[in-house]
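re: ur question from yesterday

yeah so i grabbed the chain u mentioned. its 370 aa long if i counted rite. heres the sequnce exactly as i have it in my notes:
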Amino acid sequence: MTNALRTRAVHAGRDDLTDLGLHAVPLDFSTTYPSRDSAAEALRIDEFSTGGEVSGIYGRVSNSTVERFERALAELEGFDHAVAFASGMAAVSACLLSAASQGKRHVVGVRPLYGSTDHLLTSGLLGTEVTWAAPGEVAAALRPDTGLVFVETPANPTLTELDVKALADACGDVPVLVDNTFATPVLQRPGRHGARLVLHSATKFLGGHGDVMGGIVACDAEEAARLRGIRFATGAVLHPLAGYLLLRGLSTLPLRVTAASATAAVLAERLTRHEAVRAVHYPKLGGPLVAFEVAGDPHALIAAVRLITPAVSLGSVDTLIQHPASLTHRVVAESDREEAGITHGLIRLSAGLEDVEDLWYDLDQALKAC
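ran it thru and got these structure tokens back, copy pasting raw so excuse formatting
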């Protein structure tokens, strides 16, 4: 079987359809799965409660459409398992609860992270404690009760990159969780470099059209069993229709990310020469995200775009632009934002699939307005 990502993105989760006499993925809306053998069902529930992978019984245990999406994303990231959730933050919460359930309530975080992730860690809402550290200081921040090292690369919203392999090597037995939402498996697979958990806000590039919300964690069998148990207990399940749409989104993921990355690279280069721009941040890895700092009023820029969509989120077919200090990272203390490089003038742009010249025309006129 081919290992080409572009091919597997189309076929992963669908390899059995021809044998089933189907072309489209079946959409299973069942909330419960009848059985006349209640004794056998009891044994299956016991198996699930001890970490077994069980299908059927009840929609909060499993769903066949969602399982297809999980298998596909796990394959693309190079893992044996993945567990899907109702949102990216539900996935983040489950990872923290999994570590805490093992008596490991301490987390080491590397800023910047997505604002809501930063808030969840800082607030301790789930009973966890966080130590913030620079990449080179992570090993020194580890404790016997450290359950996770939490990083994003490229980071939201500054697009700062870090060396996953060096970090994983420094952390030893402590699991490194990489939020791979910005890069996707098209640009990097952190599991190949030692990350034990790879998380996505599936709402973004995996779905790709701004019309579905979800989260997913790729991991090994042991962690997957814990995450499924947490999902069952908390009810943070992915809806079957969302699973269907996310699996469909994977089939065009390489094409969308490649095209949007080419556009972003052009915009980043032109922004470096624009008189209204103080600095441009674009990852060495490439990708569809560009961050830049304006010399004027960032709010005037947001108000002036006409083709580009002024909205939070990213990874859609249309280009999105937003002011992180006002929106995605508003819940982070101003001093922490500034220290992480999230300045008042910072703008984050997620390139879509429009013509690059149309986008540049709109961006240029908006920059002149600010």
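noticed a couple things. Residues 240-271 form the longest helix (32 residues). also Residues 98 and 226 are 6 Å apart (CA to CA).
anyway ttyl
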